[in-house]
Fold this sequence. Notes:
This protein is α/β, with parallel strands linked by helices. It has ten helices and six strands.
Amino acid sequence: MTKLRAILFDFGGTLDLASHWLDRFLGCYRSAGLELHREEFDRAFTDATRLGYAQPASLEGLGLAGLTGFLVGKQLECLRMEGPRRVRESLEQMGREGRARLAERIVADFVEQTSAGLKHSRRLLEELKPRFKLGVVSNFYGNLETVLGEAGMEALIDVALDSTRVGIFKPDPRIFEMALARLQISAREAAMVGDSLLKDCVPAHRLGMRTILIDAGNGGPKDVETPCVPDCVIGSLDELLAIRW
């Protein structure tokens, strides 16, 4: 087997914490006292994500807290206008100040979780760096490099591709090809680590990369029928250190 020279990572749900952002935001809402079911929150999460992708000029310079504040604001707007009746009524009863306090609590909770996850991952990357080139390939909002810089990862990452900045979104394989070209390596010399079979593992596998699915039991997509995908399933990034490449 060709020697592995590089490892690429997804960001959300992988490099920051082994949990999908939808589920983590949902947990933050519940902790803040707003009870929601996953299917009830899905539309608000999806709409906020779409609006974020559509406004890269507004988000480009934001760090993690600013980005989270934007997303939570858009999520709450959607829930207030189109959410379940009991949620709409609850948000109306809070008033503007109450909704602002709710948003602040959700943002603080999410940022705290994410920052802790990134701090842990940075130590892992420091262990991997002497052996591999490292990269991040993420569907993000135009400010991926800013967020990575805040986390102290800029010196550890050889290439960071933000879908909004390059105009290519996973699962389009061209974003992986771009990362490989910038690293000056072949697909067979690289592995992709992500929490999505559809967006991370399948396109990387089709290019010839090795694929690692991070699955912490968070209900990620499991319905992609592709032989030999992924090559390995792990429950946390720490398990990368034990893989015999």
